[in-house]
Design goal:
Number of strands: 14
Strand order of the largest sheet: 3-4-12-9-14-8-7-5-6
Structural class: alpha+beta
Order of helices and strands: HEEEHEHHEEHEHEEEHEEEE
Number of helices: 7
Helix content: 10-25%
Length: about 270
C-alpha cells in the first residue's frame, strides 16, 4: 500500500492530474448538478482507510475498532434513495431557491459570512475553484443551515445508525463546485456522506498536525505540498462516492476536496 501511494503522488507530479481540471462525460446520475460546461478533477488518489459494507460491520465492531481510534468508510449503511431524489437540482431550487443560505470562506481559524438566496448561490457562486484563489476568497455553502427552513429536507435523511455513547447528531448540508473544499481543521467526531459527486478526504490523527497554510485552499495543498510529502507524513485518505459514508473520530485533522459538483451531508456527534 505504501508503494502504491508513493507511485500515485509521483504520478500527480508528472501528469499534474491532481489539479488538472478536465472535461469528462456526463455521469449517469448527477441529480442535474452536472452541466456540459462543468469541469472535474481526475485523480481520486489511493484509499488508505478501511472500507466496510455496512451489513458486515456490527455496532460492537465499530465501537471497538474505529469509534475512538481511526476513520472508516462504510458502504450501503443506510437507504437514502428518497433523500437523494429530494436533493436533485430542480427539486432543491423549487423548494428552497428563494430562501437564504449562509456562506463561509473556506479557510481555517477565521471565517467571513455572507447571506444570499440559495438560487443566487447556485447561479453565481457554484463554480469550479480557481487554482490560485485563496481560502478567504472562496465562498462555501456548508454547515450554516437554518434548521427551521431545511427541516422538511432533513427529516427524510437516514443518518448512520452507529451513534457514539452519550452523543446526538446534528446535520450540516452543503453543495460545492469541483476543486473547492475546506482546508485542514478539526472538531468532534462525525459522519460525512456524499449524495452526488465525489469528495476526496485527507486525514491525520490528533497528535500529527499537518503542514498547511490556513488561508490556502485544499486544491493548492494538493498541488504544492501533497506530492512532496515524505512517506511518514502522508495522510490517511480516500475518495468518497455517492452512498458512501466516512466516519472520522474526535479531533482528527481533516481536509476535503470536491472532485465534481458535489452534494453532501455530515452528521456531527456532540
Amino acid at each position: 500500500m505504501e508503494i502504491d501511494r508513493s507511485i500515485s503522488r509521483v504520478a500527480c507530479v508528472l501528469l499534474s492530474v491532481c489539479v488538472a481540471l478536465t472535461s469528462q462525460e456526463r455521469p449517469d446520475d448527477a441529480g442535474g448538478w452536472w452541466l456540459d460546461s462543468d469541469l472535474r478533477l481526475q485523480d481520486e488518489g489511493p484509499c488508505s482507510i478501511d472500507v466496510w459494507d455496512g451489513s458486515s460491520l456490527s455496532y460492537q465492531q465499530f465501537i471497538e475498532r474505529y469509534a475512538f481510534s481511526r476513520p472508516v468508510v462504510l458502504r450501503a449503511l443506510t437507504d437514502n434513495t428518497k433523500f437523494k431524489l429530494l436533493c436533485s437540482k430542480s427539486t432543491l431550487l423549487r423548494e428552497y431557491g428563494s430562501r437564504k443560505v449562509r456562506l463561509s470562506t473556506a479557510n481555517t481559524y477565521s471565517y467571513r459570512k455572507v447571506d444570499v438566496t440559495f438560487q443566487e448561490y447556485v447561479d453565481k457562486f457554484l463554480r469550479p475553484q480557481s487554482t490560485h484563489a485563496l481560502g478567504s476568497d472562496t465562498m462555501y455553502f456548508f454547515g450554516d443551515n437554518n434548521f427551521t427552513e431545511w427541516q422538511s429536507l432533513f427529516e427524510h435523511y437516514a443518518a448512520p445508525p452507529y451513534v457514539l455513547p452519550r452523543t446526538s447528531g446534528a446535520y450540516s448540508f452543503g453543495i460545492a463546485g469541483p476543486g473547492t473544499g475546506v482546508p485542514f481543521h478539526w472538531h468532534g467526531p462525525g459522519y460525512a456522506e456524499v449524495i452526488f459527486g465525489r469528495k476526496r478526504w485527507f486525514l491525520y490523527p490528533p497528535d500529527k498536525e499537518p503542514h498547511f497554510h490556513p488561508n490556502h485552499t485544499t486544491l493548492s495543498w494538493v498541488r504544492d505540498t501533497y506530492p512532496h510529502l515524505p512517506q511518514h507524513e502522508a495522510p490517511l485518505e480516500c475518495t468518497i462516492r455517492p452512498g458512501e459514508v466516512l466516519y472520522f473520530p474526535d479531533r482528527w485533522w481533516h481536509a476535503t476536496l470536491n472532485l465534481d459538483t458535489s452534494v453532501f451531508i455530515s452528521t456531527f456527534l456532540g
